[in-house]
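Translate structure to sequence.
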C-alpha cells in the first residue's frame, strides 16, 4: 500500500470511528508502528488530525484567527448563544469567556437584565459597555491576540477573588476521553482557573467541535457540568459526553 493510500485510509477510519489507534493501523496495513506514527505526524502537521497517546483524534477546525471564526457556523452559534443567555438570572455573577459564541451571547442579553459579567475579553467588555444594567468586570493581563483575551499570572491572580454563579466556557475541542481542549497553553490554564471560580461551568460548542481535540487540554469533561450544543449534533456525538456525566442541552 502506498503512503498516500495509507493516509487516506487513516482519515477514512478517523471519520468513521472517531479515533484511530496506531497498533490497530499497524496490524491492518501490515507495516510497523513507526511507519504509522510517521504517517500520523505528517497528517497532524497538515492539520488533518490531532495526535494523542497511542493514536489520533479528529482535529478541531475552530483554531483559525478570530476574524475568520466569526463566519463559521454562525446560525448554530446564535442558537447556542441564545440558549446560554436565557440561563442567566437577575443578580447573578457570571463569567463569560472570549470567542465568537460568547460575543453572540452578550448580544442576546435582555436590556433589562441586571447582573454582573466578569470577562477576560476586551471585546466582550466593550460589547457590554452600552448595556444599561450589566456591571462589567474586566480581568487584565497579557493580551493573547488570537482570541483577544487576557492570559498570564496577573489574569489568574485577579480570578482568585471571584465567586461566580456561572462560567460560560468556550473551547475548540470536546471529547469524552480527551476532555476539553484549546489551541494555546496559557489560554487553557486561564480557562481551568475560571472554572474553579464558578459554581457551574457551561461549555458552549457547535457540533463541529464535538469528538475533536486541540493541542492543549483544559481538563476532563468533568470540569464542566453542562454542555450547550446546537440541535444539529447527532446522538452519536452527544451520547458519550452524557455517559461521561455532562448534561447536554440542545439549542
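Result:
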Amino acid at each position: 500500500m502506498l503512503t498516500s493510500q495509507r493516509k487516506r485510509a487513516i482519515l477514512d477510519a478517523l471519520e468513521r470511528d472517531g479515533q484511530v489507534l496506531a497498533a490497530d493501523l499497524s496490524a491492518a496495513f501490515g507495516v510497523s508502528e513507526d511507519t504509522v506514527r510517521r504517517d500520523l505526524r505528517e497528517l497532524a502537521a497538515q492539520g488533518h488530525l490531532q495526535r494523542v497517546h497511542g493514536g489520533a483524534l479528529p482535529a478541531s477546525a475552530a483554531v483559525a484567527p478570530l476574524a475568520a471564526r466569526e463566519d463559521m457556523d454562525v446560525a448554530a452559534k446564535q442558537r447556542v448563544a441564545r440558549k446560554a443567555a436565557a440561563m442567566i438570572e437577575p443578580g447573578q455573577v457570571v463569567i463569560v469567556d472570549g470567542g465568537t459564541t460568547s460575543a453572540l451571547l452578550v448580544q442576546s442579553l435582555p436590556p433589562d437584565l441586571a447582573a454582573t459579567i466578569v470577562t477576560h475579553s476586551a471585546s466582550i467588555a466593550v460589547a457590554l459597555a452600552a448595556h444599561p444594567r450589566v456591571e462589567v468586570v474586566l480581568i487584565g493581563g497579557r493580551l493573547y491576540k488570537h482570541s483577544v483575551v487576557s492570559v498570564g499570572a496577573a489574569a489568574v491572580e485577579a480570578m482568585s477573588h471571584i465567586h461566580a454563579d456561572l462560567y460560560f466556557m468556550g473551547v475548540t475541542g470536546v471529547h469524552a476521553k480527551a476532555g476539553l481542549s484549546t489551541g494555546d497553553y496559557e489560554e487553557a490554564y486561564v480557562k481551568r482557573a475560571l472554572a474553579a471560580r464558578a459554581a457551574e461551568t457551561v461549555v458552549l460548542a457547535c457540533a463541529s467541535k464535538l469528538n475533536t481535540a486541540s493541542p492543549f487540554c483544559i481538563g476532563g469533561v468533568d470540569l464542566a457540568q453542562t454542555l450547550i450544543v446546537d440541535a444539529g449534533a447527532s446522538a452519536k456525538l452527544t451520547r458519550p459526553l452524557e455517559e461521561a456525566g455532562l448534561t447536554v442541552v440542545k439549542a
